[in-house]
């Protein structure tokens, strides 16, 4: 058939590759299913979200009702979670590599828009970090140093913004880069100490990051031989992105967006070699690191790609490394001085390690070692064991990163595969591990890995993590029964909806043959 149906980051899809009429109807069902889930999340968040201690919705007619029914509200939220995750899993069949007809880029974009718009109006869920952002931003707006003072010390324990910060973070300084705090300072100047406007402006900031991710993912995927729509599905449409970047308002979205855009801009300068593009891309990557430091790892793999372009010798590698180091040094210095925050962020990078979470494998092993010592009557050496296992984990992660850089330099693996695997190793073996950290590995790998085993593994990990994390992002203070009640209600509701819709969704559940 003549004509062009769509263009995906440089890959042109002909009309003959587009979904047929039956498949388009199935795709519409999947879209609507996910959209209903997003609407349920928006409604349920009014009572099941990670609201601040001072909840501005209390006493508001209708809107404040769900706040007095936490089990019902969380049941609504979990029903929405089940619907979005199931819709995303089924959507994956329309972008599966090797399929004769794939969904188009425009179809994926519209699906993302339909699922995202309702989530923009959600109360923050799954984490209370955004309230820390607001408090740290207010500290910066007052001319104080957020790298020296925590919210309680700078604002006072009774300040509305301090009261919204989890207790463990009220005395700790900001662990984020100066560029993010500069954005936050402007936000605080606009919204003051008003919680809802502050959350909304911060959400707009991470939506800019999501826009950068959507722009960069398909273009990077096309460069590394992966179907762009598959990268968008696994990356931007991933429930972890929707839940933790859009709803959770995590600044990881902005850092990831800058990192991926920087890589795409720099790679444009490698074919043919154009230094202006390389420098621009590297600068953008460093700006991402000035939001959150893991983005700096991309600079190493960009340096490897540049060294291979220059000739692939050790001398070329050293030249490339020197250039990346100079760019990093210049950009970091300019950002630190221009924002007025200086280099205090270097001393607060390990602030998160004050929390001892079982989710971090090194920390969990440390707890296990300490507990074993107690059972054997050797005394309580848990703190020492955690310290040792964390150091060992960080050493192993550095070794893994160096090995991946070397393999990428020798052409044994794709640079994006190395970046994703390296970031995964650094974060998994780090002192603290949060569910949204998975995205640092998932997004780069989505642009370079096409194998069915990885796809199945990534789908499973994303779906499980998306479902198991409570929406309130905090403990339940003796009300642990709320969670099983909410989950049970959501499972029953979801099951009933599936039964009522079985005639419509039955075609979606049939096994495809290629």
From TrEMBL:
Coiled coil: none annotated. The keyword Membrane applies. The chain crosses the membrane at residues 33-51, 71-91, 195-217, 229-250, 275-308, 320-346, 358-379, 391-409, 421-445, 457-476, 482-501. It is found in: Membrane. The keyword Membrane applies. It is a multi-pass membrane protein. One of its GO terms (cellular component) is membrane. One of its GO terms (molecular function) is glycosyltransferase activity. InterPro entries: MptA/B-like (IPR049829). Keywords: Glycosyltransferase, Membrane, Transferase, Transmembrane, Transmembrane helix. Belongs to the MptA/B family. This is Alpha-1,6-mannosyltransferase. The lineage of its organism: Bacteria, Bacillati, Actinomycetota, Actinomycetes, Pseudonocardiales.
């Amino acid at each position: 058939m003549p004509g062009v149906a769509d263009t995906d980051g440089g890959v042109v899809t002909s009309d003959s590759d587009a979904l047929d009429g039956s498949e388009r109807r199935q795709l519409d069902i999947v879209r609507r299913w996910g959209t209903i889930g997003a609407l349920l999340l928006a409604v349920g968040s009014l009572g099941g979200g990670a609201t601040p201690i001072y909840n501005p919705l209390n006493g508001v007619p209708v809107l404040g009702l769900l706040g007095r029914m936490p089990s019902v509200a969380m049941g609504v939220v979990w029903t929405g979670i089940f619907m979005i995750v199931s819709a995303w899993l089924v959507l994956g069949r329309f972008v599966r590599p090797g399929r004769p007809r794939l969904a188009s880029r425009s179809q994926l974009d519209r699906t993302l828009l339909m699922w995202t718009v309702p989530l923009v109006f959600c109360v923050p869920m799954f984490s209370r970090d955004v309230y820390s952002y607001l408090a740290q931003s207010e500290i910066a707006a007052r001319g104080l140093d957020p790298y020296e003072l925590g919210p309680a010390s700078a604002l006072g324990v009774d300040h509305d913004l301090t009261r919204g910060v989890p207790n463990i973070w009220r005395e700790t300084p900001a662990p984020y880069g100066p560029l993010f705090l500069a954005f936050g300072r402007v936000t605080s100047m606009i919204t003051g100490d008003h919680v809802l406007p502050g959350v909304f402006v911060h959400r707009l900031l991470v939506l800019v990051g999501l826009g950068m991710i959507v722009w960069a993912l398909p273009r990077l995927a096309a460069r590394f031989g992966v179907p762009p729509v598959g990268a968008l599905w696994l990356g931007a449409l991933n429930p972890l992105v929707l839940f933790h970047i859009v709803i959770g308002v995590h600044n990881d979205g902005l850092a990831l967006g800058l990192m991926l855009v920087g890589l795409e801009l720099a790679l444009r300068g490698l074919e043919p070699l154009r230094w202006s593009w390389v420098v621009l891309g590297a600068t953008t990557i460093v700006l991402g690191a000035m939001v959150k430091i893991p983005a700096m790892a991309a600079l190493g793999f960009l340096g490897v790609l540049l060294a291979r372009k220059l000739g692939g010798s050790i001398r070329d590698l050293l030249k490339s490394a020197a250039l990346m180091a100079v760019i990093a040094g210049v950009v970091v210095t300019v950002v630190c001085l221009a924002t007025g925050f200086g280099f205090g962020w270097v001393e607060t990078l390990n602030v998160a390690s004050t929390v001892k979470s079982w989710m971090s494998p090194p920390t969990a092993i440390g707890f296990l070692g300490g507990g074993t010592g107690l059972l054997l009557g050797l005394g309580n050496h848990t703190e020492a064991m955690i310290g040792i296992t964390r150091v060992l984990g960080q050493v192993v992660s550095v070794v893994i990163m160096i090995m991946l850089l070397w393999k990428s330099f020798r052409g044994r693996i794709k640079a994006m595969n190395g970046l994703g695997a390296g970031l995964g190793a650094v974060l998994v073996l780090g002192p603290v591990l949060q569910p949204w950290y998975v995205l640092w590995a998932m997004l780069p790998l989505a642009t370079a890995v096409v194998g069915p085993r990885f796809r199945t593994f990534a789908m499973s990990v994303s779906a499980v993590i998306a479902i198991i994390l409570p929406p309130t992002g905090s403990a339940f203070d003796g009300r642990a029964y709320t969670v099983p009640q909410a989950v049970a209600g959501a499972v029953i509701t979801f099951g009933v909806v599936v039964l009522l819709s079985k005639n419509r969704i039955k075609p979606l559940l049939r096994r495809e043959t290629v």
